[in-house]
Design brief:
Layout (H helix, E strand, L loop, with lengths): L5 H17 L5 E5 L7 E8 L6 E13 L6 H14 L13 E7 L5 E9 L6 E3 L6 E2 L2 H35 L2
Parallel strand pairs: 3-4
Antiparallel strand pairs: 1-2, 2-3, 4-5, 5-6, 5-7
Length: 176
Amino acid sequence: MRNATKTDLIERRSHALAEVMLTRRLDIEVRDLALESLDFLGVIHSELDEPMQRQFLHFGIIVRGTDRLLENEVEATEFARGLQKQTNRLKNESTWFMPVILLLFSMQNDEGYFAWMVEPDKESMKLLQRRQPECVAFDKKQLDRMVSRIEKYYARLESSGSSDDSRRLGEQKAKP
């Protein structure tokens, strides 16, 4: 086995922390991705009213880590923006048709920070591409808020699609 570099160890540990923090909710599954721009695919297994019906709500996950101490959200935001300037891996050059989050971890204290990179609009079916990350502490409350935003986004998409489908069906039935 090859010798792991400090960068490799930080990356592996950050990925492990991301998986542990996201799966504090048992309805979230974290799948590995081998993409340059996304590290994981998150899947929220949302239960519906009917017993055999489930939704699978996807979101992208970018994970970064540092051996620096990040003591607060301001430091985390500055660090994330610095990463964005240094490398294309955090630049939002890809167009994603799903929500995408950034998780940033400090190896000094295992603190996690969260930022939207592609954020569901609160009122519409739009996804907002964020030019710069704005980090907040990633705790259980933030995880719940994130899941709620993603679920509401997909619910708006579904209700829009089903009303369009029913309108089209009505138009088809109206034709002789």
